[in-house]
Design a protein that fits this description.
There is one protein chain. It contains 13 helices and 4 strands. It is mainly alpha-helical. The chain has one domain (about 15-150, about 175-305). The chain has a two-stranded antiparallel ribbon. The protein has a two-stranded antiparallel sheet with strand order 3-4. α4 runs antiparallel to α5. The protein is globular, with a radius of gyration of 24 Å. It starts with a strand and ends with a helix. Keywords: Membrane, Transmembrane, Transmembrane helix.
């Protein structure tokens, strides 16, 4: 159980107590089960024989895989933080908003494609059931969790005490805050571009022989909508506990590494990208490097003690002295 400081009636004392987090853990376990159910339904409902009519190409499935990268990051964050106390409402709100936007996009796509005004794949009669069991269930579960997750005055006081203690101990740094803001800003631009201009984005980076239809544009917009989750969470991550900050930046790194690997797979194995994709590929690599650097820096600030740093420093010094002695011999 984690140890936290709780202010009692005495104004001058703060005594450490052990908080029981079994209720929070059980709620998070239930949420994890719901997420697993959604993933299973999602995988079943998005099969090409069940949801659409027509030929399902590799490009359709490849674009859908980009959406999975965000779900992988969210699942990792939920798993790592299930024993860290109450979940952060900012993270829950980001999932509520993103799932609602995804639900709206899916419903509008049904109205557009079913109206015979779009070229390409047609939707089967089971499409609405898929939407209800994936985005609808996801939005419903997150909305309930948002409603049931409440914070008390004592919770806010504990967070303030813990945050103040970090700065008093010299572990506070504005680099972490700026890193989260930079992540939020870049991801917001990324999301807006994919939501607003899916046709231009896909036609620019894909080869001309790939015939694009409404399904490609739909999944491009869904990818942009899912990127709103890290936008909102990163803007509020500076208020998270150190353990949650490390878990969150690790989830962001996991999602971005998945995107980077998909770019490699699509460019050199599927060969669906044009030469213009090199710029996007390099930007994805730079962004992955930035998140890796931020993760290493945040983990070092919070969890690497001075004794460990001294041990590492002594090992480096001894190694350098040993090499210098060999050179003199």
């Amino acid at each position: 159980m984690p140890t936290v400081c709780v202010l009692r009636k005495s104004k001058d004392q703060a005594i450490p107590v052990f908080r029981e987090s079994q209720k929070n853990c059980s709620k998070n376990d239930c949420t994890t089960v719901v997420v697993v159910v959604i993933i299973v339904c999602y995988d079943y409902c998005n099969s090409n024989k069940f949801q659409i009519k027509g030929s399902f190409t590799n490009v359709h499935g490849f674009i859908q895989a980009f959406c999975a990268s965000l779900h992988v990051g969210v699942g990792y964050f939920l798993w790592k933080t299930q024993k860290l106390g109450k979940p952060e409402r900012a993270a829950i709100f980001s999932r509520v908003l993103s799932s609602f936007i995804c639900l709206i996009f899916r419903l509008f796509a049904y109205m557009h494609i079913a109206g015979k005004s779009a070229k390409g794949l047609e939707l089967s009669n089971q499409y609405l059931y898929c939407v209800a069991f994936t985005d609808g269930l996801w939005f419903f579960s997150e909305a309930i969790r948002m409603y049931r997750t409440t914070k008390t005055n004592q919770d806010e006081i504990e967070a303030m005490v813990k945050r103040t203690t970090l700065w008093v101990e010299g572990k506070g740094t504005f680099y972490i805050e700026n890193a989260f803001y930079l992540d939020a800003g870049l991801t917001l631009v990324y999301a807006i571009i994919h939501i607003s201009f899916p046709q231009h984005v896909l036609s620019l980076i894909l080869k001309p022989d790939n015939k694009l239809d409404s399904h490609h544009y739909l999944w491009c917009r869904l990818f942009g909508a899912l990127n709103l989750m890290p936008v909102i969470t990163s803007m509020n991550a500076r208020f998270f506990s150190p353990e949650m900050q490390v878990a969150y930046i690790a989830s962001r790194l996991l999602s971005q590494c998945t995107v980077f690997l998909l770019n490699i797979y699509g460019h050199w194995i599927l060969t669906v990208y044009s030469a213009n994709h090199i710029t996007a590929f390099m930007l994805s690599g730079f962004f992955t490097s930035f998140l890796f650097s931020a993760f290493h820096r945040i983990h070092k600030v919070y969890f690497v003690t001075e004794q460990e740093e001294e041990i590492v420093y002594e090992e480096v010094v001894e190694g350098s002295e040993g090499t210098s002695d060999k050179k003199t011999d």
